[in-house]
Each structure stands twice: as structure tokens, then as C-alpha cells.
Task: structure prediction
Amino acid sequence: GRVANLAICRNYGEPNDILLLFCDSDWNSEGCIPFNSIGEAKFEAEKDYSGIETKWVNLPHNDEAIADFLRKVRTTDSLVV
Result:
């Protein structure tokens, strides 16, 4: 069935590293489908969620900033965001 929110995320280092996440109203993931590209994920989401193509929001984080964040997370026991 339909969910309250959708997100397209990258699962760094994994094959088919683009994930279409199906989320509840608090953005908790209820499931996901892997894809090879963001375009494929958007295409599939837009087939079932008419009008969503104008609602996608790009986050301001680039790959370098994300990689830096992930290095920090992996080298600490805990992280409070």
C-alpha cells in the first residue's frame, strides 16, 4: 500500500546502492527497494505516486561531506546528532 513519505538514499559501498525507502509519517523506514540509479528509483516511485515528481527535494550534502561524516561515525563509539 501507499506510505506517508518516500526517500531516495545511497547505501554507500553496496551493489545497487540506491534505495527507495518507504517511510511512515515520522520518516521511519518501513521497507526499501534497491536500484542502480536515482533515475530508476524516481521512475518507479512516480508510477505509483502521481504528482510526486515535483516534490523531490535534493539535500545540500555532497559525496565528500558524506564520506567525511561516515569516516567520523565509524571511528567513534557513539555519535549524537
